[in-house]
């Protein structure tokens, strides 16, 4: 995690600190190693208005939950689009069958039914 914080700081040219607490609330480790810089960033963070603090705070479980919901919405849209395309294909197949003369209908039915495999 500390390596990623360093990469983020370097790549984005921003100030980053990581404060790691144990289960009992005891301070375990910080990154940056310079405690005065960590203290300065923490003080600036606490002085922000609550709305600004919420923007700057990252909660991994909330982030992942939102990402999963977004992925589910996208999956649902893809399935709806697939169903719509399959329905449209069936309508077009029916129209083609109605437009073809009787002797071509049998060969067309075979070639059109092979298109069904595209959507499976």
Automatic annotation (TrEMBL):
InterPro entries: TF_MADSbox. GO terms for molecular function: DNA binding; protein dimerization activity. Residues 1-27 form the MADS-box domain. Pfam families: SRF-TF. This is Transcription factor MADS-box.
